[in-house]
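Hi again,

Forgot to attach this to my earlier email, sorry! This is the prediction with nicotinamide-adenine-dinucleotide bound. I've pasted everything inline since the attachment limit keeps bouncing my files.
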Amino acid sequence: MYLSDCPRENIRWAGGRRFRNGNATNLDELEGKTMNAVEDKVMRVEIPKKYELFIDGECRQSKSKERLDCFCPISGEQLTSVPIANKDDVDAAVQSGVKAFAKWSGLTAKKRQQLILKVADRICNEVDRIAWLETANTGKPMRESVANVYTAADRLRYYAGACRALEGRVLPVTSDITSYDHRVPLGVVGIIGAWNFPLNMFIGKIAPAIAAGNCVVYKPADATPLTTLEIAALMNEILPAGVVNVVTGTGPVTGEAMLSHPAIRMVSVTGSTETGRKVMRGVASTMKRVTLELGGKNAQIVFPDADLDRAAQGILLGAFLNQGQVCTSGSRIFVHRDVAQTLKDKIIALIPQLQMGDPFKEETRMGTLVSKEHFARVSDYIEIGKKQGARLLCGGRRAEVAGLPNGLFMEATLFDQVTPEMTIAREEIFGPVATIQEWSDYEQMLRDVDGVEQGLAAGIWTTSLSMAHTTAKRIQAGRIWVNCYNLFPSGASFGGVKASGFGREDAFETLFEFTEVKNVIIDSADSYRRFYG
Ligand code: NAD
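Structure tokens for the complex follow:
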């Protein structure tokens, strides 16, 4: 385990309770269930003052002297620091992957399945500790962190099974000539994650990569590397050394070293649209395959026939899960004029249920934003919204939580009377800020929904099956939810269109992204063809 491998000059402590949520595998299953604090005593998780890189199955000192400090957005204290891996560190991680690749890709899919299933079990056995670290590093409610651990384990189990169904294709060209395709892993793949779901992103992105037989160099987001480093160490108890390597650091130093490394065959990046553009430029010289999961400015459309109680609940989940720091955040609410006032009343009546508080407490539904910089960015958008004439319906301020004066708590914020040209209706805010736009003309509403540069997700609230189908077909987005929101089942393809990127995650087809087709043509005729002479 990481903790016993690392130098622990100074151990830090913090409080929390032990959590168990039975067999729930994701947030949908958690809904309506009580998360029991199984032990009343306060839980303590040790965090080393310094982490190192995780390369070739061991905790390895970085060759760089530069470090990144990691903070707890709940207390404001520094939790630890991690190296900013440089080119040499990235190269060491890649070489470790190259060395492990022959063995790992040579295993049968059945053997890989067995090992990956063990990793899933191992992570579930550590649910409290992992969830605690995730909450300490991100400020998200413990309830969501626990759900994220089970979702992550479910992704591993899904791909453990899916890799066994990765089949080829045979084309009988003539009676003698047979062509067949089979899928082979790429080699070492580079994966770069965002900070909003650090553990889910790490596991969800590496699961198809390693299941398909690749080795991985993973870079977590700058501010949130804790669970990635800890889980990589847990995985190492089960997987061969070098299959999963972790390099911490910044985008311009560590990320770009990955983009330009000649032995990395593919990069899969989750991040902002701006980062996606840099990534595409960065891989040009080494011709890597790329998949990009980028930002969104997602709409939730409410039709006049919708079940408004259901829509109000779903809109809240869509807009405020993880304090709105979700790429699919359904932050643009398009409500039909006839039901607008009723819906607004229902949403406002539900706001108190988003109980803000200490994220380690079981009853908390809204925690903190991830960092001071991000808090300032979200606050700026709120000011812009006010200046541009949107009407603040609720929230809009920093929230006070007793005993946590440094916590980066932001009230759930709703803007009314928003028009499509306003900045808050066009740019991704990535915080607990949603806008309400009323509509009466269906065609105009669809133009406004699609009138942003991104196209990740959308929600439709209606009781009309035909309206749901028709509208789902027309919206430019990769994921459409009908009468639900923010559900992410394993096996359902997830990804964006337009400036939200390309490539699909979470689905069987994701195995195709992490493999390439090798074609073999065999001539089995006794006599050979004479092309010359
Ligand atoms: P970000 O773009 O700032 O960083 C994402 C990752 O890219 C980080 O690890 C960062 O270090 C790295 N990076 C930055 N510049 C780089 C460069 N030049 N070369 C290589 N790597 C570089 O994003 P963030 O602030 O961490 O996350 C928020 C963004 O991520 C939002 O826009 C959100 O919508 C998006 N996101 C998308 C999805 C999705 O599945 N579509 C999921 C979660 C988050």
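The chain has a mean pLDDT of 93. Residues 192-196, 219, 221-222, 250-252, 255-256, 259, 269-272, 275, 278-279, 282, 293-296, 327, 428, 430, 456, 496, 500 surround nicotinamide-adenine-dinucleotide (CB under 6 Å).

That should be everything now.

G.
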